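Chapter summary example: a protein plus S-adenosylmethionine.
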Amino acid sequence: MPDTSGYAFDNTSERAGSRYDVLESTYDPVTFARLAELGVAPGMRCLEVGAGAGSVAAWLAERVGPDGSVLATDIEPRWLGELPAAGNVRVVRHDITQEDLPEGRFDLIHARLVLLHLPERQAALDRMVRALRPGGRLVLDEFDCGWVPVLSAPSPESAELFERMHDAVMGVLTRAGADIRWGLHAYGALRATGLAEVASATWAEAWVGGSRGIRLHQVNIRDVGGQLTGDGLTDDDLERCLRLLDDPSFAVNSYPLITTWGRRR
Ligand SMILES: C[S@@+](CC[C@H](N)C(=O)[O-])C[C@H]1O[C@@H](n2cnc3c(N)ncnc32)[C@H](O)[C@@H]1O
């Protein structure tokens, strides 16, 4: 199936694997704690949209047990191959912007860092809401990519280099239809769908050069690097920025993960 989704990052090569690695190791503990607090329990029917490499779907499968079920979807499901071994997981190639879901079916629908990328996020959101059973819960984990302050840098020039590079990467995503501040906009969007009990919480930490989380910037810069030089950045700037991200004297705030949830009436 052709990829019509607007997703600007690579989701097929080893680089996608590295991205999933960073996302899972950094954000899974936050996602799992929130989902546990929201009451994911044995017997529930769950949908994980844009499941990536499947860590959240695997956690849900464990949590809901043999009487529950998990449907894990992605437009590129090649990273989800081992999930069906869990017995209660089904993996489906599915484009959330274009293809229907069973309506009124799920107790819990979760997506992390999917709608941010998609120009047709409203249609996707409406489809997810319709797929909830009455009383079922939608939980979105999204970034506000507009708040990534540099916390320390070896020089003012290096801080400025990071900021220019980050703006350029965000420019690539925005031109592909992403809403890079969607984490902030999700709360209002969930309320507008008519969901009840809409709430939200935000998590962030400092990312030091060379640490686990900051690798996300390196993966992203390498991924869209060919499109950045049009923004006045040279190949040398790219290389200097990649080295800066390995320098322990550099630190930047992580992307804040904003979790927003609500219940179908
Ligand atoms: C940034 S990754 C996040 C992966 C995973 N949710 C995580 O947080 O670890 C975004 C995922 O959304 C998937 N995706 C992009 N467009 C999609 C669409 N239209 N429908 C379903 N999945 C999509 C990508 O293939 C990718 O796996």
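Key point: Helices lie at 14-37, 55-64, 121-131, 156-175, 182-192, 215-224, 235-244.
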